[in-house]
C-alpha cells in the first residue's frame, strides 16, 4: 500500500508541475489529471497526508483556476458540506480547498487575503457545521449500505482536520452556533436537533468544562429535561410513571419543562407524553407547563375546550415542537379574536386532498398515528405562535415566507382561509388589479421545485403563493418600473403602503438617485426625521446580501418589523429574515444581531445606517413623512460609502 501511495504521489507531483507550467488559458486541460490523481490519493489516510504536503502550492499551480474555489477569501463555510456530499469532481476540489485552508492556518502557505487566524476560524466552523462527517453514524444501515466513496473521502478529510485542529475550538464554535440558532426561535428545529445529537459525541473529547456543560444542557433539552424523564427516558415507561406520580412531582415536572423550553426554545418528544397526560387528567397544570403570561392564562381559561382539543389532535412526540408554538400563541392572545376560533375549528374535520396530505404527513408522523388534520392544526399553532420563526427552507421563496409571517401577525383570518382552500381544493386565488389569479391554472413559480423541509402551513401554501407572486410579476414586465411597486400591495394586502422607491433604473440597470433614495427612507422611517410617525405593520423591503468581504451574493426579501432605540440608545432597524439563519456577517463590520440589542423573539437587527446601506427597495406612506432636506449630509455620505464599497462595486452608478 505504501509503495502504491508513493507512486501515486510522484504522479501527482508531476501533474501539479505540469499544471503550473501551463499557460492560464490551457490550465483547464491539465486540471482533470490533477483531480483524478487527487481522488485516488484521498482514498487512504496516507495518501491524504501526502496531498496535504502539496497544499501550499495549489494556488500557485492553478488547481482552482476558473472555478468557484479560486478566491479563498470569498469561500463560505456553510457551503462546504454540500459540496463534499456531492458525487463527482466537486467533492474532490472541495477537499483540496480545505487542505489549502489548513496549510494557511498552519502557516505553511502565506495567503495575501486570508490570515492563519481566519483560516483556522473557517475550518473550525466547517467542522462544527458538518459533524455528520466528523462523527459519522455507526448504524447498521450505514455499515451495510455505506455512503459512497465521496462520503468516505469527506469523513477521512474531517478526521485529518480534527487531528490537526483543536476539538476545544470546534466545540466552542458549535455551542455558539447552537445558541445563535436557538435564540432565533425557528419553527423547524431539525437542523438544531441534529447538531445537538452529533455534538454529544464531543463531550468526551478535550473540551473545556463550560462548553461541555452547555452541550449537555442542550442534549437534555431535546431528550430528558426533567428528573422524572431522566429516570424513565423510555416514552412508554415514562407514561406509566406519570400515572403513579403524586401532585407535587407532576407540578415539579411542569415547572422543569417550562424552564427548559423557555431557555432553549426546544421541546423534547417526552414532553408531549406529559402534556397529553395532564390534558386528560390534570388540565389545570397546562398553564404552568406552558409558563403562560397573564394574557395566556386568560386566553386558555376562555377557550379551554378548544385548546384541549388542539392538544389531543396535534401534540405527539413526533410533533413536540408544536408545544412551544402553543405557549406563544396563547400569550399572543390570538384566540381572543372571535373570527379565529371558527377558522381553527374548521381544520379539525376539513377534507384534505390526497396530494396535500402526502406533502405534510412525514413517515414518522404516519408511524406515530397522526392524522393529516392533526399535523395541519399543529402547523397552524406553530405559525400563529411563532410568526417570525417561519423559514423558507432550501427554496428561493422568501416572498411567500414573508407573506405567511405577515398574515400570521395581522391577517390571521385571511391566512386560515388560504390554508382551508389550499388543503380542500388545492387552489387559492387573489385579485390583481381587478383580475382573479388562480394558483391551480399557473404552471411555474419562482422556484423550479419546492423542497418540503418546511412547517406544515408553509408546505401547504408556498407552492400556491410562489406561483401567484410570479404570475403577478409577469403582468408588470412591460411597465418600465420595478413590478414590486404594484405586486406587493396586491399580494400581501392592505397593510402595505402604496409609496415605493427603488435605486435601480429598470431600463439601464444603473444605480440612480441614490442620495434621494437614502434621504426618503430616513424621512419616512427614522424617528428623528419622520415627524414622529411610527410603523404599524411590517414593511417588505429588498436588500442586497453580501458575504463577509462585502461581495454581492444576491437579492433577498425581508420585512422591517420596527425602528427603535437599542439599550445603548442607538437607533436600530429590527427585521424579519425568512432564510432560517438571521445572524450573519455581511462584511464592513456589518453583522446582523439576533440577541443582546433589544431584539424580540425571532427578530434580527442592525444599526439604522448599516441596514440602509444594504437596501435597494422599500414601501412608504407619502402622507407620513418628514422633509428630506432635513436629513443630515453626513448620514447620507456614511450610507453611500458603505454601499459603494460593497455591493455597489457590481453596478454602474449614475
Q: Main traits of this protein?
A:
single chain; 654 residues; alpha+beta; six-stranded antiparallel β-sheet; 8% strand
Oligomeric description of these chains = single chain
Low-confidence regions: 138-146
> Percent of residues in helical segments?
40-55%
Structural class: alpha+beta
Overall pLDDT level: 92
Total helical segments: 32
Cα end-to-end separation: 64 Å
How many strand elements?
A: 8
The general outline is: globular
- Sheet of most strands: 6 strands, antiparallel
Radius of gyration: 27 Å
Strand line-up in the sheet with most strands: 3-8-4-5-6-7
β-strand percent reads: 5-15%
Q: Can you characterise this structure?
A:
With 654 residues, this protein is of the alpha+beta class. It is built from 32 helices and eight strands. The chain has helices at 2-21, 27-41, 45-53, 58-61, 80-84, 89-105, 116-129, 131-134, 140-145, 149-164, 167-182, 190-199, 209-221, 227-231, 235-244, 247-264, 269-281, 286-290, 294-302, 304-314, 322-332, 340-345, 354-360, 363-367, 372-385, 398-410, 412-425, 456-474, 484-492, 514-525, 608-612, 633-644, and strands spanning 429-432, 435-438, 499-502, 539-546, 552-565, 571-576, 604-607, 615-620. The strands form two sheets. It has a six-stranded antiparallel beta sheet, sandwiched between helices. Strand 4 (539-546) and strand 5 (552-565) form a beta hairpin. Helix 6 (89-105) runs parallel beside helix 10 and helix 19 packs across helix 21 (322-332). Residues 138-146 have low confidence and may be disordered.
